[in-house]
């Protein structure tokens, strides 16, 4: 498999933003009197904020979203960082000639704030957010839209993410799928989805790409 495009999820994959997301949801749940539960909302990371709001707030979904956006943008810069080695990894892939992109279920404003704040914008050839498609992960539409804009097919691409929504979307799109173990889902949960590989660090990525030794077999 000759990989020419590397697409990435944003939160929990490139950006260490899960502390911000959890902090924000806890504030919103408390203000709206919604039981926090056993981190139930965190298992929805990877779906759109509208899906999450409708599930947890029902008819108060719009209020939920407004409160979330207020706290998220107020505290964004305090809590948001990249995972170690992320920029170096992207620079290396770029120098090797790969096209790079982000496919996220985050809305356009929030996604681009994180992308610009962390310096990811320097490396991305395409960014697909929740506002750019009608159907979202785990459906393949956002990944396929990114590939279409780059004029490459799924057989030339890898999609890298930290949740089961990412693996499902990549598989549905027909790309290679890789899970990272430092994000939302743990190794065991991701392994049950049978991605093409699991990464414990960015140093392990190259073995799956066109200049490495990917052999098309499932599992890590």
TrEMBL record:
Q: Matching Pfam families, A to Z?
A: HAD_2
Q: State if Hydrolase is listed as a keyword.
A: yes
Any one GO BP annotation for this protein: DNA repair
Going by the entry's taxonomy, the superkingdom of the source organism is recorded as Bacteria
GO MF, one annotated term: phosphoglycolate phosphatase activity
Q: What's in the keyword line of the UniProt record?
A: Hydrolase
A GO cellular component annotated for this chain's UniProt record is: cytosol
Q: Which PANTHER family match?
A: PHOSPHOGLYCOLATE PHOSPHATASE, PYROPHOSPHATASE PPAX
Q: What is this protein's name?
A: HAD-IA family hydrolase
Q: Which organism is it from?
A: Desulfofundulus thermobenzoicus
């Amino acid at each position: 498999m000759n990989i020419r495009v590397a697409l990435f999820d944003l939160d929990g994959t490139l950006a260490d933003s899960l502390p911000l997301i959890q902090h924000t949801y806890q504030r919103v749940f408390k203000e709206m009197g919604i039981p926090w539960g056993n981190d139930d909302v965190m298992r929805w990371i990877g779906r759109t904020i509208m899906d999450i709001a409708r599930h947890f707030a029902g008819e108060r979904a719009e209020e939920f979203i407004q409160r979330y956006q207020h706290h998220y943008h107020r505290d964004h810069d305090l809590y948001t960082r990249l995972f170690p080695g992320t920029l170096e990894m992207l620079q290396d892939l770029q120098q090797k000639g790969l096209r790079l992109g982000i496919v996220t279920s985050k809305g356009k404003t929030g996604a681009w704030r994180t992308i610009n704040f962390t310096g990811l914008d320097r490396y991305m050839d395409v960014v697909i957010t929740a506002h750019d498609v009608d159907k979202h992960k785990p459906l393949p539409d956002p990944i396929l839209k990114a590939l279409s804009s780059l004029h490459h097919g799924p057989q030339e691409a890898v999609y890298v993410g930290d949740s089961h929504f990412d693996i499902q979307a990549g598989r549905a799109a027909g790309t290679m799928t890789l899970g990272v173990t430092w994000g939302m889902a743990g190794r065991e949960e991701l392994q049950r989805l049978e991605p093409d590989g699991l990464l414990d660090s960015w140093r392990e990525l190259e073995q799956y790409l066109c200049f490495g030794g990917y052999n098309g077999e499932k599992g890590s």
